[in-house]
Design brief:
It is built from eight helices and 17 strands. It has 315 residues and is α/β, with parallel strands linked by helices. Strand 13, helix 6 and strand 14 form a beta-alpha-beta unit. Helix 3 packs across helix 4. The radius of gyration is 19 Å and the shape is globular. It binds zinc ion (2 copies).
Length: 315
């Protein structure tokens, strides 16, 4: 089968003809219908997440079809031990032995893949394969980030990419007010955010004090900026798996019971909750399609920050 393979970090993926994956115990063989391209894939390819299996087939937002015709989604969380203190307390996202799709396990930049059935999700009807793929990471991580931001009414989204474009819709559905912070002069992203329900979009500080901020951009300097923008008791959530170093900042910014936290991975419960909620919003994903063999072009576009919504590969 054809697959896009990472041989070494910091090199382009190569289109290869590789052996069909063989399902192990508990695994399903899935024909890949679509696979979303995530910023995490970029961090893996660029060597910022530095312990991938090699060679590796990236991709962890997979819409696949089983041999008996069922449509399933394969997310980043590919396997957990089920017995550690995290797994047994509803925090399998923190499992020390967790294995991740498109990192520890070959993913969906291919025509076929295998996945542990217990970690696959049923995809709600009403979402085409291309529309559904970004729900599996951008949507899920965005959803978990919003939950961990608490009951905030005024929510700031820092970096308006694939995750933010979904979270904005969910937040509006829940009656929250959305403020989108983008890079300077990124008027396209600002217009896109307004289209999706942001009442303000711009660079710098939002016009009102926020109750929560979610940082999707991998830029550490946004942390003190977001802390300065949230009210006392507010929460700043760092939603990315990788971020540049955070500059030092005065304690005053954290004082007043402000909370600074990260979001790591997802639990299966997040997936079930979010995929039940998505059709009720209803979430509409904006996608740009690339054929499988143009995965490098898709990643380059993401690296340049030129994406409105999400990128999806179609084998
Ligand atoms: Zn565990
Ligand atoms: Zn992802």
């Amino acid at each position: 089968m054809r697959a896009m393979v990472l041989g070494e970090p910091r090199q382009e993926l190569s289109l290869e003809d590789v052996a069909m994956p063989e399902p192990g115990p508990g695994q399903l063989l899935l024909r890949v219908r679509t696979c979303g391209v995530c910023r995490t894939d970029l961090h893996v390819v660029d060597g910022e997440l530095d312990r991938p299996k090699l060679p590796l087939v990236p991709g962890h937002q997979i819409i696949g079809e089983t041999q008996d015709g069922r449509r399933l989604g394969v997310p980043w969380l590919g396997w957990t031990c089920g017995e550690c203190r995290y797994c047994t307390s509803g925090r399998e996202n923190l499992c020390d032995r967790a294995r991740f799709t498109g990192y520890d396990i070959d993913g969906g930049y291919a025509e076929w893949t295998v996945a542990d059935e217990r970690f696959c999700f049923r995809i709600p009807d009403g979402f085409e394969d291309v529309q559904a793929a970004p729900l599996l990471c951008a949507g899920l991580i965005g959803y978990r980030s919003l939950r961990l931001a608490g009951a905030a009414e005024r929510v700031g989204l820092y970096g308006f990419g694939a995750a933010a474009h979904i979270v904005a819709q969910v937040a509006r559905h829940e009656g929250r007010r959305v403020f989108a912070v983008t890079r300077k002069r990124d008027v396209e992203a600002q217009a896109f955010a307004r289209e999706l329900g942001a009442e303000w979009a711009g660079a710098g500080t939002p016009p009102e004090e926020l109750e929560a901020a979610i940082i999707f951009a991998p830029a550490g300097e946004l942390v003190p900026a977001a802390l300065a923008a949230v009210a006392k008791g507010g929460t700043v959530v760092c939603a990315g798996i990788h971020m540049s170093d955070i500059p030092s900042f005065p304690y005053e910014l954290l004082w007043g019971e402000r909370v600074l936290r990260s979001v790591a991975n997802l639990t299966r419960r997040d997936g079930e909750e979010f995929l039940a909620l998505a059709p009720r919003v209803p979430v509409r994903t904006h996608v740009e399609l690339f054929p499988l063999e143009q995965a490098n072009e898709a990643l380059a576009k993401l690296r340049r920050g030129e994406v409105r919504g999400a990128l999806v590969l179609v084998p």
